[in-house]
Amino acid sequence: MDAYQSVGVRRRLKRFFRRDGRALIFAMDHGFEHGPTDFEPVWEHVNPRVIVRKVMRAGVDGVMMLPGIVRMAGDEVKPDRGLMIKLTSKTNLRPKDEQLLQSQLGFVEDAVKLGADAIAATVYWGSPAEDVMMRQFAEIASYAHDLGFPVVQFAYPRGPYINEKYGKKEDYRVVMYGARAAAETGADMIKTYWTGSRETFAKVVDAAAGVPVLLSGGAKTENPVDFLKLVWEVIEAGGSGAVVGRNIFQRENPEPFIKALIRVIHRNEEPEEAAKAEGLI
Ligand SMILES: O=C(COP(=O)(O)O)[C@@H](O)[C@H](O)[C@H](O)COP(=O)(O)O
């Protein structure tokens, strides 16, 4: 028989994924991590209740937020969607070299009290502060697993040595390394960068050895079809979906865009076809 906790981890993880094993998750930690200027393109979305209501209506599978935003807008998250609460972050206000550390800003108990279905933390693999973030992740994961909660790792290679050795943090060799390190540290879901091609992203998925790998959205693309194409490549590479923030909340009318993303992720529709069906082109 399974330990009780294993059942909890599996059940909660399923709240994010549809039967196809894929998910579209809305990310909204930007007010803290990038600053409220990220919301300026569509200022009404600075209010989490407004944007969360829209993304729920459009059909996202889950949301990711920091604890205080869950307190403000958690009631808007429908009970049949996954709620991911992230317990580490950093502001953009720190001195640059200290931005290679994410600090813990909440505790597993807080996430449990707020009704989390999964608990997330970032590790900047290769950062001078890697040791601190590894420990944070280990402590969060150990306690969360004990209580039956899955853990999500934002596995981001980042730091001066990576730049020196690989030229950029999106080099597939380091993204793949980060994904592997996430799997080896007990992550139940991994969020990471796009590596630039289907072939290289497929290697990242392989390196994660069965732990679902989701794309971290990135900056908004002017042409919505370009982002749909990117997500299409992720799915073709064996990725399990995407965690998307700016490409959703920086659009004046995010609902048809989300519906098009759902068509690509869950119905295997080609990007142009999905965009046409939702009136984006
Ligand atoms: O991971 C984050 C920031 O990463 P960054 O330091 O900007 O590379 C999160 O703030 C976001 O949740 C994540 O980037 C997803 O949001 P978008 O990139 O799609 O806006």
UniProtKB/TrEMBL annotation:
Catalytic activity: beta-D-fructose 1,6-bisphosphate = D-glyceraldehyde 3-phosphate + dihydroxyacetone phosphate
Keywords assigned by UniProt, alphabetized: Cytoplasm, Glycolysis, Lyase, Schiff base
Localization, UniProt: Cytoplasm
Molecular-function annotations in GO: fructose-bisphosphate aldolase activity
GO BP of this protein: glycolytic process
Gene Ontology CC entries for this record: cytoplasm
Active site annotation, chain numbering: 156, 191
Enzyme Commission number(s): 4.1.2.13
UniProt record similarity statement: Belongs to the DeoC/FbaB aldolase family.
Xref: PANTHER family: 3-HYDROXY-5-PHOSPHONOOXYPENTANE-2,4-DIONE THIOLASE (PTHR47916:SF1), FRUCTOSE-BISPHOSPHATE ALDOLASE CLASS 1 (PTHR47916)
Protein name per Swiss-Prot or TrEMBL: fructose-bisphosphate aldolase
